[in-house]
# Entry
Amino acid sequence: MALRVTFILSGNIVDATELKGKTGLRRIINAFGYSVKGFQTAWAHEAAFRQEILFCTILIPLALWLNVSVIERLALIGVLALVIIVELINSAIEAAVDRIGPESHYLSGAAKDLGSAAVLVAITLTAFVWVSVLWGVFFPNP
# Structure
């Protein structure tokens, strides 16, 4: 059973599915295009995103080169992907808040601070995983 969402638009009750665009393969192709535009926007406007991508271009080859288990390699690369994911979500939150208006509001600041905190948690987890795996590589248990 599909979820039906209705809302009022210009005084008329509208089924949300009427506002949706294409379906099937066309929808998937469009969604891919929107995702590419999202990456382009993040690259063009978010210095933190560019820095994190730079770290990924260095650390992913290192993760592939290291003599570690498949699980460790997946953890090393997975936490890097997590940082990128959280950064993209944080950037989306910031863009939506900025779109609302330039005036200062407690909730706007809280939304941005919470998004930033999420990025910090992801980066901290990444550092912990990398240090733990590298510790095992350079100081193996006897």
